[in-house]
Amino acid sequence: MSQISQTGTASFTAQETAGQTGTNDSFSSVDTDSFMKLLISELQNQDPLNPTDNAEMIQQISQIREIGATDQLTQTLSNLSNSQELVTASGLIGRTVQGLADDASPVDGVVDRITVETSDDNNSRSVKVHVGEKTMEIKNIREIQTG
Q: Which residue ranges are recorded for the region named Disordered (predicted)?
């Protein structure tokens, strides 16, 4: 790759990589937008007498597509996991369960309903089972009994 000159974009790249380790795993936190900003900065600041090689540019575009595909796959698997959790919880209605309630107290009884709660803070959702007046997340169930 061509070298980026010491302009305002250099401070961008320093801020983006601050706190990341020198291993290959540090690139796992780079999203498509960050990668595009870096690529555009490189193109804007490349040496006009020695431009970026076409093969190198194609490789970078390929990396952008891989990042986008990985993001999409992660989202799809997350949606599938959420759906599976809901199906599993709905199968517990009428069954006796034991586990820990949201207030960390023990719960033992028949599941009478399930709910899905969403959090606006981190854009997540959790499936909860209700045993009488107690509520617990599906991951806190320790034992499931028939009838």
A: 1-28
